[in-house]
Amino acid sequence: MNKKFLSGVLSCALASSMLLTGCQGASTQSKAPESTGGASSAAAAGQITSDPVELRFSWWGSDNRHKAIQEVIALYEKKHPNVKIKAEYGAWDGWQQNILTQLGGQTEADIIQVNYNWVHSFGKGKNVFLDLNTVSDYLKLDNWDSNYLKAMEVGGEQAAVPHGMTARAFLYSKPLFEQSKLSYPTTYQELMDAGKVIGKNNTATGAENKYVLLNIGKECPDLFIAQMLYNKTGKVMQVAGKVQYTEQEVAAALEQYNAFAKSGAMPTFQQQNAMANESNPDWTSGRGGSIYEWIGTMDKYLNSYKGGKAKEEIAVAPYLVEKAGETPNIYVKPNLGYAISKNSKNPQVAADFLNFFFTDEEAVTALGTSIGISSNSATLAIQEKAGLLKGIMKDGYDMLAKYPQTVLDPYFEDSNVRGARYAALEAYRSGKLSSAEAAKQYISKQQEELDKLFK
Amino acid sequence: MRAGRKRNFAPYLMLIPWVIGFIIFKIYPIVISFVYSLMEYPILGDPEFIGFDNYVHIFTNDDVFASSIAATLKYVLIGTPCVLVTSFFVAYILNFKLKGVNLFRTAYYIPSILGGNVAVSILWIQLFDINGPVNMLLGIFGVNPIFWLTDESFAVITLILLKTWQFGSTMLIFLAALQNVSQSLYEAANLDGATKLQQLFRITLPIITPMLLFNMVNVLVKAFQEFNSAYLITKGGPNYTTYFLNVYIYDQAFMNGNYGYASALTWILLMIIGALTALVFSSSKYWVYYND
After folding, report:
1. Is B230 near chain A, with CB under 8 Å?
2. Could you read off the pLDDT of A329-365 as tens digits, one per residue?
3. pTM (two decimals)
4. CATH architecture of the domain formed by A46-165+334-391
5. Which CATH class is domain A168-332+402-454?
6. Quick one: closest CA in A to B152, which residue?
7. Membrane spanning segments where (chain B) (predicted)?
8. Is the ipTM of this complex over 0.85?
9. Does residue A316 contact residue A239 with C-beta atoms inside 8 Å?
10. Which of A326, A396, B94, B152 is most buried by a 10 A CB count?
């Protein structure tokens, strides 16, 4: 009797909780927009729904970005008490794998910080995120230059919106050049010559070796060589899935790159420290004269240089050119994008949050330059008004503004395409392959990977 | 009589949660991974059945797999004996009645607890840097600095040294086995005039061979599954010389989103581990002595 009563109670409890969950699920879902031609300005979340809404927002970055975005979330939640946004954040290492796995299992966050290449590579040319045109009533897309939006357009759909545009730039330590009575090189030949002076006492294994340029990790040499090839040939790496260079062109660039290392301008493959980030001891100690980094992440390197106690010693240098007087075309790419999940139950609220993220004065001020300098006109105006555009990052963008720019091909950074270049470079730099063999591999393996994407 | 023959289902009912868990979390993934291995299965796309094409591609047209399998086998075939010999040697010493022996046993076990985490990886990078303590120490003996992490010949050795350093668990099992060897055997051997070396090879080692077999299989399987050290310290380089199969599988599955190809690689890894384990077990009848 008691057992029957107990099982009855449990069954009722289960049934009622299922019903309640069902009701709640229905009530928290905001309806899909019926048309995009309604209100032109972004609507407030309170107007979208007054029911409780829970969103997830995932991003990667360093501590200052984590703190800043959480502040923005708190500001939004304060203005929209019915919305709760759960933050999911971490460091870059392993983040791509994390997001890809979540997308595969359809467990991704509602709002996702994305990389430029992800929006193109993940779906191999098909958009895997929500088309932001469907929520343009809530997220004002007019604030972006159409070319910047186009960079994150996949298959005619707006997969994400970029925060800004970024490029690699040279950040250099003034004392090392002043001691050698040198100014920072402006041509590849000057880079080589500076190496012969600054690195004249270098030995194969010297603990006190000095270098003109530290090409940290695998990505730096890859981008440096890509820019070098562009400067020398006037051709970009790939167009519509076809590698544009001849083996001779690549071999010549590789040989010149190795000559830099031999002259003492850069560490050789063996001399390169395994610490492939801002903690690289050659940089933090001041023995590395410069780095080639994304403008958006320069602050990290500024803070690690001599423990952050000698920031005045650091400046942004002009881009290297083949011959003095030339103006190179610099590779740029969208600096972080923001996408909304196709599986989000509340895409309008997510879009409204993104609009707040980019256009609310308090939010943009709280973000500071933790994501970089924005290319969204509203965000940029607030950043300017709040006096945020200063320091090394602004210097980097100011330097970039002096040059014509070319947006990197979306598949340039595809992990397989890039991996093919990395492998060829490593094989050449470590002496496993000759320049001709490495150049052949550089082109053919990259082409193989591109063919898979464009089949 | 009838009541006595009535079947008691209680044990089976108690086993059900485990059986369900085993089917869902072990059997199902194993079966489904084989099915995936027969497909082109992009993580964000529709799977397509392609038969054994993934396997054919791996064995006929994948240079990275060839490098990866060479790196893995080198690591396993050198690393396994290194761990076994070191852990047995330390266990043998710690089996003597030394002053403060418990402190030493704890100290030698600590590296095993640390595992292959990020902190240990940074420690290893610093230790084996060209200007790091290891080279400084070798310099005292006139050895020229070695590029431990960037030289193709040494990178895998550096990771084997890390593996060997973490010998604690294997050592504890050897120690337990050594403590079970009857002292009367050594006393008898002493009376017969056997040297310590003879006692080691004629008494100790034969008696602990079941534990040696256990440790060997364990270390062998774990070595094949090595991931952290290669991923965190050498990033699989230089030139794929530390690009172990597990790293390759991880990259294929989670970096490139090729579930089908990664599943095929996983099955190949399983076959290799299975074959080598079977070889060790089948050879055990010639060198393992059970006390029965």
Report:
1. no
2. 999 999 899 999 999 999 999 999 999 999 999 999 9
3. 0.81
4. 3-Layer(aba) Sandwich (3.40)
5. alpha beta
6. A430
7. 12-39, 75-94, 106-127, 154-178, 199-221, 259-281
8. no
9. no
10. A396
